[in-house]
């Protein structure tokens, strides 16, 4: 009988140890998920120690300091961090948080640096699109022209052409589209010089690049060309550089528009919003809307602008904020003007 008791004690001890080890593994071993929580909001019509968070130079500005237009963010698991199973479960169960497959936010196969570079590039594009859309809505003159979007490090244009160069002409021929640039380069042979006349930092330069063959045997100068834009005003962004991604485009456009047009677009309301913006003023869907709504309500917003395409994400949400869906920048401007001018919100669209 004594041997049986000893065996049972050993089994109990081993079972307890296994339980502890498994519990520790659940806490320590990461799972392929990321968490989303309400992030900070930022009044883009406000200032920091260096000046206005968003400043438009080279054009008359109108007062906006008394208004509050909130850029919204989502607090996410950093790319270099990992989430345990209990953390993922807690985030999934909390009404204002969520857990998503890691690849939904950080695609497999990309390094941490590549993920950051992609996010920063998305923010840069968002700012350019927001500026162009706002200037066009104001309206101010915007000229579309080909732009060097990237330069291959091992290509012949490296250290000669730069991303952001606006291409005025190639071999003396005026350029209007990126496709025209590609066609002229394609018409050359390896060893031929191609002369690019570009606008860089408001200075026109002529730069000769020698054509080489790419790995597929096609003529190439080692650049990618996309649509670029030329306009007189210069928009300076002083938003925290850690805030990246494209979803602030709508708010940036509204802030620029408000600064360069008469009257207050936002008025006395605290307005928050989210949505991507393209150069033509179209508003696109974004992720994390419920988390951004929670952060906005926490920070006192009474109106929340969101993409029309995201209305279905919040149809079961209870909130005291007025949720205003928009498909274009003009929709957002019209809605805010109605809110500011009217004692009734009957004409202002809402989700649902």
Major sheet, described briefly? Answer: 6 strands, mixed
Adjacency order of strands in the biggest sheet = 8-2-6-18-21-22
Q: How confident overall, as mean pLDDT?
A: 85
Radius of gyration: 26 Å
Distance between the termini: 72 Å
Q: Structural class of the secondary structure composition?
A: alpha+beta
Q: What are the main properties of this structure?
A:
7 helices; alpha+beta; 4-stranded antiparallel β-sheet; globular; 352 residues; 6-stranded mixed β-sheet; single chain
Describe what is shown at a glance.
The chain is of the alpha+beta class. 30% of the residues lie in helices and 29% in strands. It is built from seven helices and 22 strands.
Can you put this structure into words, describing what you see?
With 352 residues, the protein is α+β, with helices and mostly antiparallel strands. It is built from 7 helices and 22 strands. The chain has helices spanning 2-28, 85-93, 112-137, 178-186, 249-260, 289-298, 329-341, and strands at residues 30-31, 33-43, 47-48, 51-52, 54-57, 68-76, 83-84, 98-101, 143-151, 166-170, 173-174, 193-200, 203-210, 212-213, 219-220, 223-230, 234-237, 270-273, 276-277, 283-284, 303-307, 322-326. A 6-stranded mixed sheet has the order 8-2-6-18-21-22. It has a 4-stranded antiparallel sheet with strand order 11-10-12-13, covered by helices on one side. Helix 3 packs parallel to helix 5 (249-260). The chain is globular, with a radius of gyration of 26 Å.
